[in-house]
Amino acid sequence: MSYKVEALPDSYAQLGEGPHWDEARQSLYFVDLESAGINRYDFKQNKIYKAKIEGEKWATFILPIEGKPQQFAVGCTRRVVVVEWDSCSPVAKVKCTLFEVQADAKDNRLNDAKTDPEGRFFGGTMFDGKGDIFTQFKGQLYSWQPGGPVNVVRDQVGISNGLAFDAKAKKFYYADTNNLEVVAYDYDQSTGAICKPKVIFDMRCIRPEGPLFPDGMTIDTDGNIYVATFNGGTVFKVDPRSGKILLEIKIPTNQITSAAFGGPNLDILYVTTADKYDQPKPAGTTYQVTGLCAKGYPGVNLKLYK
Question: Could you give all domains of the chain from N- to C-terminal order, each with its CATH number?
Answer without folding.
Answer: 4-290 (2.120.10.30)
